Amino acid sequence: MDVLINPHQAAFIKGRRITDNFCTAHILVHHLHTSKLSAALLKIDFERAFDNINWCFLVDLLQARGFGPLWISWIQALLRSANTSVILNGTPGNSFSCKCRLRQGDPLSPLLFILCVDVLSRMLQRAATSQLLPDLGIGQVRIQTLQFADDLLIFFDGSLRSAATIKLILDSFAAYSGLKINYSKSSLTPINLLVNQAAALANSFGCCVKSFPLNYLGLPLSPKRFCRSDYLPLIETVDNCLARWKGLSLSRGADSSSSIRCSRPYLPISARCLDYQLGF
């Protein structure tokens, strides 16, 4: 998977960390801001991501990426064996088979999902290679997207031409893959752009304008260096979780710890990221 997936997708792949994405985003935003370069950051929200994957798209993708017929037949059998029922007033109805979606709770589903969304990154990269989108980055490092599972950031130069190209790519990807973009929950954050420019860009996508600091992967993203006080809400959240352990035995605390880690997958509290941000 490490070879198959864009290096800026940090989820579900051994050796990649959520904190890398946040720090990369901060470095790029800080560079664009201090260099006085006009740019925009588009934060994409996928609508019910796992529920909308088109199976025909997934099979075509697996074939294109070199997976063998036997492996693909196993994946198809796994998907088609799932049944769903609707619960009304506590009573489940008759079961029926699904025509799309990935199975919730299946350990293969996250890997299949990031294979699917990797197509979008490749489409945007190809547009940049074809000079349909200007390159953004620092030095030799070019960055169009940063992904963590279905959490997607797209960086572009802030022009209406680039916005139209990105919108076309997003809509084409959604039509083929089944992964619909929820533009009403997506947002555009301007970097060194005028208010009317940002409004025009947001209008072209049908999304809202949000300013920095922007909540990204559970942390406040901003071009400025943060001080300790900026992390107080995050620290208070963790402190409240720890307070619930009072009076519990060690074994119960261990169980609670596992539960909290599972329910808060986006808390990137690592020494590496915080040390970088706080300047320790």
UniProtKB/TrEMBL annotation:
Residues annotated as domain Reverse transcriptase: 1-221
Pfam family, one: RVT_1
Any coiled-coil regions, as ranges: none
Chain ranges passing through the membrane: none
Matches recorded under CDD domains: RT_nLTR_like
Name of protein: Reverse transcriptase domain-containing protein
Organism from which the protein derives: Ananas comosus var. bracteatus
Phylogenetic classification of the source organism: Eukaryota, Viridiplantae, Streptophyta, Embryophyta, Tracheophyta
